[in-house]
Specification:
The chain is an alpha/beta fold. Helices cover 33% and strands 24% of the residues. The protein has a single domain (2-220), classed as Alpha/Beta hydrolase fold, catalytic domain (Rossmann fold, 3-Layer(aba) Sandwich), CATH 3.40.50. This is Dienelactone hydrolase domain-containing protein.
Length: 225
């Protein structure tokens, strides 16, 4: 287990080294792209699911860092009564995580992305809005942070994956993000899955994984500046 410090707190990080493809150098000793994987409000409740996602991404040739950002507030899962007050602290921690990731051996600092799930996606948008080091975002059914659209941030290329029947984060949130990206001429892809709720099940999991691999290859791959 690795770690970095944010706000005086030790933030644990699970590291998944790139294990396949040529995107991360293919064992040639060259630096390669890397992503932060940000869990949702469930924290580590379903950690094995996030670890499976990390291994899948790393198998495509990307270093993956899975930070336990709730360590900043010493929580195991989100306390909804404190969500608004804690959100800026977690965003700062994710920003510190980007700095940590950029400094890791074998990581090409100019090719960093964030894969965020639900709350993790909201944090990805919040951080990328003011941190140009983030070159790509994968948004798994995340909400748009409150007030962010009004600030008209320049976001990086974004892949939006959302369930049409999501009862937790309405699909309208996905379309709001799409509108901003379209207005600004930012490259994006969107896939709304019919019949899916807050989370993807069955064959949609395989479809989304394939889309993530393709998207990251386009925006963080070896031929990208």
């Amino acid at each position: 287990m690795q770690s970095f410090t944010s706000g005086g707190q030790r933030i644990e990080v699970e590291w998944f080294a790139a294990s396949g493809g040529s995107a991360a150098g293919g064992g040639t000793g060259t630096n390669g792209p890397a992503v932060l994987l940000l869990h949702g409000a469930d924290g580590l409740t379903y950690a094995e699911g996030y670890r499976l996602a990390a291994r899948t991404i790393s198998a495509s040739g990307y270093h993956v860092a899975f930070p336990h950002y709730l360590d900043r507030t010493q929580d195991r899962r989100v306390a909804y009564s404190r969500l608004r007050q804690d959100f800026p602290l977690w965003a700062t921690t994710v920003r510190d995580g980007v700095s940590w990731l950029a400094s890791q051996p074998g990581v090409e600092a100019g090719k960093l992305g964030i894969v965020g799930v639900s709350l993790g996606a909201a944090l990805a948008f919040e951080v990328a809005a003011s941190d140009a080091r983030v070159k790509a975002i994968v948004d798994y059914f995340g909400p748009f942070p409150e007030g962010l659209a009004a600030r008209q941030p320049r976001l990086p290329p974004t892949l939006i994956l959302h369930g049409a029947l999501d009862p937790v984060v309405p699909v309208a949130q996905a379309h709001a993000i799409e509108r901003l990206l379209k207005q600004q001429g930012t490259p994006y892809e969107i896939r709304i899955y019919p019949g899916q709720g807050h989370g993807l099940t069955g064959t949609t999991q395989f479809d989304s994984a394939a889309r993530v691999a393709s998207f990251l290859g386009q925006h963080l791959g070896p031929d990208q500046a």
